[in-house]
Amino acid sequence: MSLKSLLPAAVLTIAATAVTAQEAAPLLRLQTSYSMYSIGVSMEDPLLIIAAARLRKTVRLEATERVPDDAAIVDEAAGQPLGWRDMLDMADELAAGDPLMEELGEDIRAERAKGVATGPVYSIMSIRGGGHDLYSDVQFSGGEYAEIYVEGASGTDLNIQVRDHKDRLVCSDTDISAIAYCGWQPIQDGNFSITVENKSGRGGQYSLITN
């Protein structure tokens, strides 16, 4: 078997083994793809970046208007979250004319996107160093897996906390990184508050994505 025929399988294996059955939830796929992409960039590994792009392409996002209650900064033209095309562009740059890597990237670009026509929604805000944004009354359905994912600029340290209508903490992610993820299953329909904190001294944009 040729190396060319093995590489696409390697890409699929990297993406598939990075995600277990429960981790197949859409926003956890986004988190996993970002981690893979970041490692690929730091290692200058276009194959890993291509795998990250393929995983991110499986999640379709829609923009929504959502502003935190205590917004200090509102972006009129905030842009979009990091996309799979951006990842492939980086892979092309690192591949430096490697025809095999370029062909793999083109295969991902040409591959038909799968999944539902509509998906998670995102909004983009800017946050100050040491700042926080509060989103109150975000509704989630009971009995369905709820997800929140925050993806920030490199160098920021973003945390999230989720509380129910009685102000009880139901989920949090306080790891030191530019991304944060929460997933839980509400018992019943209800409104939840989301707090995004920037624990670093550097400000920047972030995407808030919910399912």
Q: Quick summary of this structure?
A:
The chain is of the alpha+beta class and 211 residues long.
Describe this structure in words.
The chain has helices spanning 3-17, 26-43, 46-56, 84-95, 99-110, and strands spanning 62-63, 121-127, 132-140, 146-152, 158-163, 169-173, 179-184, 190-198, 204-210. It contains 5 helices and 9 strands; from the N terminus they run αααβααββββββββ. Helix 1 (3-17) packs across helix 3 (46-56) and helix 3 (46-56) packs parallel to helix 5. 32% of the residues lie in helices and 27% in strands. With 211 residues, it is of the alpha+beta class. The protein has a 5-stranded mixed sheet, with helices on one face. A 4-stranded antiparallel sheet has the order 3-8-5-6, with no helix packed on it. It folds into 2 domains: 3-61 and 82-110; 121-210, Jelly Rolls (Sandwich), CATH 2.60.120.
Supply Rg: 18 Å
Q: Which structural class do you get from the secondary structure elements? A: alpha+beta
Order of helices and strands: HHHEHHEEEEEEEE
- What is the helix content? 25-40%
Spatial strand order of the main sheet = 1-2-9-4-7
Number of strands: 9
Q: Give start-end ranges of low-pLDDT stretches.
A: 1-6
Portion in beta strands: 25-35%
- Here the CATH topology of the largest domain equals Jelly Rolls
- How far is the first residue's CA from the last residue's CA? 41 Å
Work out the count of structural domains.
2
For the sheet with most strands, the description reads:
5 strands, mixed
Overall geometric form? globular
Question: How confident is the prediction overall: mean pLDDT?
Answer: 85
**Quick one: CATH class of the largest domain?**
Mainly Beta
The helix count comes to 5
- CATH 2nd-level architecture of the largest domain: Sandwich
